[in-house]
């Protein structure tokens, strides 16, 4: 029996309209049938792009949002059906760490007040002095000075604030902590500290974590099991290493292909799967497989039938009709996965249809050549082209995250990317897939190329334009 | 060796500095706002004006050289013939149409004016805040039923807001009859929807904040979430509005008195009543209207200045 078990949990938000009387005109299917289980002492990582419903799921477990249907069984009790007061008492055992460390702390309460509030609500500690002792012990545990008690949240740094958030959860001695993007608002250097702290606490206190994140490196580092979410449902679930070693769902493959490799040579040869289009609206999800509108291996069946999460052995569960076929290469690509996927030329959709997966040319190479050849501009150095285009994807941004957060790696991997990371804002660590989605304006960028004088290598232009297109949204590439 | 000592010194110095900053106890947001307020010229001018006004209201009746009601110089003023006595040594502001000392009447009248302003503001603030808290709490934490309650309350306040404030005050005063209490209540009632809406809106904005969600996740009871989490963070605009509405309350009270709905006892001086009485003699003795008018303007200005300064001091966006 797992400590926390979710069974077909759905959270649908009604969309209302009307001047005098609210009329429900539809639903946003934020979480649409998720089943998962978290073992005691384990860390379950939940990844997915922005808007896929992972935060909503985390909140649903704590009943911070209304659960439409399904069961959340915690230690044998179905939380979804608990009356309010009993749920309130259960909250002592299920705590949450929030994404925004400052926003989640009441600016008008000092630290002692913030930390003792929960204790008072659950009758922990006999009096003020007793609670203060407990709080001091916890503060020491999370690495905050004891004189923090009378200070206010705005007087702390980002990392310290997140420690306060963790301390607030810990004072209640919970069994499960749901970490909703616990480090995404922090500096890269602080991220590692906080993650190490979380791990340390798990070891010493036997905590169970449900970690929600979009940073693949972070999730890989701390999770035992990882679930990948897409548009309100799980598409793949597997033990951490198995998932990273062999992603089976097309979406996971695309995600993993975005993770940079801390080895320049491997990195150069890395094959990127770029997805077409944007995340569909959760108010109007596509029929059949949710991913079929963007899946590079899409088949007819996908639009008709919604695949269920099935175990392929060793706890590796995939919700894809053709996971096995894609794995052994019997199904070829039906959509482009190279840069044309985001450039969005009409032809590109069926150009690669016949191309087998196995001997696919590195994704970056194809589009770059194509773009320049079509524009009838001489490509000076095709090799350089490849390099340039790889830079176009904001890989450099995520690379250091991998290096750093996998806890204090020695400086020998200190590449340019690492240095860049120091300068990057938090924003820059935004999810890959988002950046990819937003790289759409390249359409225009390519057109612009036609006007470029012939003596200038057009490929560089493409790369530059693409770089700004992608980078403009993420921060600065 | 020297470099080593230097470094050691530096480290010691650093430790000392950090010790200093760490030993200071935390500065709450209210305290910081107060500090900013003290540095604001606008706030200081406003506070000085209000201070003078309050002092005048408190000690006025005792320091007034003459009784405000004694018609000592009745024989010297012939209002019906347009003969007035202006400023002079014994009567600094001159005499009114009944031969009463205007300076004394201004001093004594300040108390009534302050009373009307403060009491009517408090009526509006207290009732408005209660309504606002109810509505805001219902809307943020009350679920579907709460949202219904909130809608009903808000439609009622909308109704009140849609009436011109003076009309509303006049209707209240007309129903309740002529008295000072009437004026206070009438002016206060006008302020209720303003405070209610303001507080509710502010609470609604705070209700969606992460720390409220965190409080819920902690298992804090709803009542306590409203009182310790949402409310303290929603108060700043209400405090500012209270200061600003003191100014409007004084002006509206004066307007009601001017319309003849105020205190029927002409013996008790009040700036609004004085202004209304001076109207008849404006052609012959404009100064008689000027004193109470300028008094009201300066006082209202004082409250407005302080209110504006507080708005700036409490604005979280300006937090340094």
Automatic annotation (TrEMBL), chain A:
Gene Ontology MF term list: ATP binding
Residue ranges, annotated region (Disordered): 407-477
Segments of skewed composition (Acidic residues): 413-435
Pfam families: ABC_tran, oligo_HPY
Keywords: ATP-binding, Nucleotide-binding, Transport
PROSITE patterns per the UniProt record, alphabetical: ABC_TRANSPORTER_1, ABC_TRANSPORTER_2
Sequence intervals crossing the membrane: none
Domain of life according to the entry: Bacteria
Keyword ATP-binding: yes
Comp. bias intervals (Gly residues): 468-477
Ranges where the ABC transporter domain occurs: 4-256
Keyword Ligase carried by entry: no
Biased composition (Basic and acidic residues): 436-459
Family: Belongs to the ABC transporter superfamily.
NCBIfam families to which the protein is assigned, alphabetical: oligo_HPY
Protein name: Peptide/nickel transport system ATP-binding protein
Lineage: Bacteria, Bacillati, Actinomycetota, Actinomycetes, Kitasatosporales
From TrEMBL, chain B:
Subcellular location: Cell membrane
Keywords for this protein: Cell membrane, Membrane, Transmembrane, Transmembrane helix, Transport
Entry annotated with the keyword NAD: no
Cross-referenced SUPFAM superfamilies: MetI-like
Domain ABC transmembrane type-1 span(s) in chain numbering: 110-307
Major localization class: membrane
Ranges that cross the membrane: 43-64, 114-140, 152-174, 180-199, 238-261, 289-309
Membrane topology according to the record: Multi-pass membrane protein
Coiled-coil spans in chain: none
Cited Pfam families: BPD_transp_1 (PF00528), OppC_N (PF12911)
InterPro entries listed in its UniProt record: BP-dependent_transpt_permease, MetI-like, MetI-like_sf, OppC_N
Transmembrane listed as a keyword: yes
Family: Belongs to the binding-protein-dependent transport system permease family.
Name of the protein in its database record: Peptide/nickel transport system permease protein
Organism from which the protein derives: Streptomyces clavifer
């Amino acid at each position: 029996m797992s400590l926390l078990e979710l069974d077909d949990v759905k959270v649908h938000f009604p969309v209302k309209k009307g001047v005098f009387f609210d009329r429900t005109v539809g639903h946003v299917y934020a979480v649409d049938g998720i089943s998962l289980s978290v073992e005691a002492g384990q860390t379950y990582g939940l990844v997915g792009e922005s808007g896929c419903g992972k935060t909503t799921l985390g909140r649903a477990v704590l009943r911070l949002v209304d659960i439409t249907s399904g069961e959340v069984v915690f230690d044998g009790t179905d939380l979804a059906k608990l009356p309010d007061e009993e749920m309130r008492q259960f909250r002592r055992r299920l705590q949450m760490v929030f994404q925004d460390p400052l926003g989640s702390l009441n600016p008008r309460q000092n630290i002692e007040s913030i930390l003792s509030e929960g204790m008072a609500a659950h009758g922990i500690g006999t009096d003020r002095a007793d609670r203060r002792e407990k709080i001091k012990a916890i503060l020491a545990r999370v690495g905050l000075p004891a004189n923090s008690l009378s200070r206010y949240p705005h007087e702390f740094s980002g990392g310290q604030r997140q420690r306060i958030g963790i301390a607030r959860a810990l004072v209640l001695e919970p069994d499960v902590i749901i970490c909703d993007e616990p480090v995404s608002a922090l500096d890269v250097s602080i991220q590692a500290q906080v993650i190490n702290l979380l791990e340390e606490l798990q070891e010493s206190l036997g905590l169970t974590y449900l970690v929600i994140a979009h940073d693949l490196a972070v999730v890989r580092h701390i999770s035992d099991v990882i679930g990948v979410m897409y548009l309100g449902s799980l598409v793949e679930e597997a033990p951490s290493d198995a998932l990273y070693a062999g992603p089976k769902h097309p979406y996971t493959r695309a995600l993993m292909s975005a993770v940079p490799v801390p080895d320049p040579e491997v990195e150069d040869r890395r094959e990127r799967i770029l997805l077409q289009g944007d995340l569909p609206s959760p108010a109007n999800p596509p029929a059949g497989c949710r991913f079929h509108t963007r899946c590079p291996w899409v088949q007819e069946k996908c639009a008709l039938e919604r695949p269920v999460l099935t175990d392929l052995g060793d706890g590796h569960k995939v919700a894809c009709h053709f996971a096995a076929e894609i794995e052994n290469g019997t199904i070829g690509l039906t959509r482009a996965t190279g840069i044309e996927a985001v450039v969005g030329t009409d032809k590109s959709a069926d150009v690669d249809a016949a191309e087998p997966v196995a001997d696919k040319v590195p994704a970056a190479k194809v589009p770059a050549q194509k773009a320049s050849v079509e524009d009838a501009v001489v490509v000076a150095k095709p090799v350089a082209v490849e390099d340039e285009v790889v830079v176009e994807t904001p890989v450099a941004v995520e690379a250091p995250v991998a290096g750093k957060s996998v806890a204090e790696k020695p400086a020998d991997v200190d590449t340019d990317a690492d240095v860049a990371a120091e300068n990057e804002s938090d924003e820059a660590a935004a999810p890959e897939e988002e950046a990819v989605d937003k790289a759409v304006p390249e359409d225009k960028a390519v057109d612009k190329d036609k006007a470029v004088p012939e003596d200038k290598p057009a490929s560089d232009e493409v790369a530059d334009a693409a770089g700004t297109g992608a980078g403009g949204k993420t921060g600065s590439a | 060796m020297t470099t080593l000592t230097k470094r050691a010194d530096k480290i010691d110095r650093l430790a000392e500095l950090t010790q200093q900053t760490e030993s200071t106890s935390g500065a709450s947001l209210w305290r910081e706002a107060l500090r900013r307020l003290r540095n604001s010229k606008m706030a200081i001018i406003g506070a000085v004006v209000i201070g003078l006004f309050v002092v005048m209201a408190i000690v006025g009746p005792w320091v007034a050289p003459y009784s405000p009601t004694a018609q000592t110089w009745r024989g010297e003023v012939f209002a019906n013939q347009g003969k007035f006595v202006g400023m002079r040594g014994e009567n600094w502001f001159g005499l009114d149409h009944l031969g009463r000392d205007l300076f004394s009447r201004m001093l004594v009248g300040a108390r009534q004016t302050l009373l009307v302003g403060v009491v009517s503001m408090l009526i509006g603030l207290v009732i408005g805040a209660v309504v606002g808290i109810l509505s805001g709490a219902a809307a943020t934490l009350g679920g579907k039923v709460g949202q219904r309650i909130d809608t009903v309350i808000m439609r009622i306040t909308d109704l009140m807001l849609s009436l011109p404030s003076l009309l509303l005050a006049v209707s209240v005063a007309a129903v309740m009859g002529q008295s000072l209490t009437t004026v206070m209540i009438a002016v206060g009632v006008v302020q209720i929807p303003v405070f209610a809406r303001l507080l509710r809106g502010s609470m609604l904005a705070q209700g969606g904040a992460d720390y409220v969600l965190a409080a819920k996740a902690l298992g804090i009871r709803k009542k306590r979430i409203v009182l310790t989490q949402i409310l303290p963070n929603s108060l700043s605009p209400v405090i500012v509005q209270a200061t600003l509405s003191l100014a409007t309350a004084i002006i509206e009270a004066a307007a009601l008195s001017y319309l003849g709905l105020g205190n029927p006892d002409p013996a008790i001086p009040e700036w609004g009543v004085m202004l209304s009485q001076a109207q008849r003699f404006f052609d012959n003795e404009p100064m008689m209207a000027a004193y109470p008018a300028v008094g009201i303007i300066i006082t209202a200005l004082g409250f407005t200045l302080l209110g504006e300064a507080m708005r700036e001091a409490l604005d979280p966006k300006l937090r340094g």
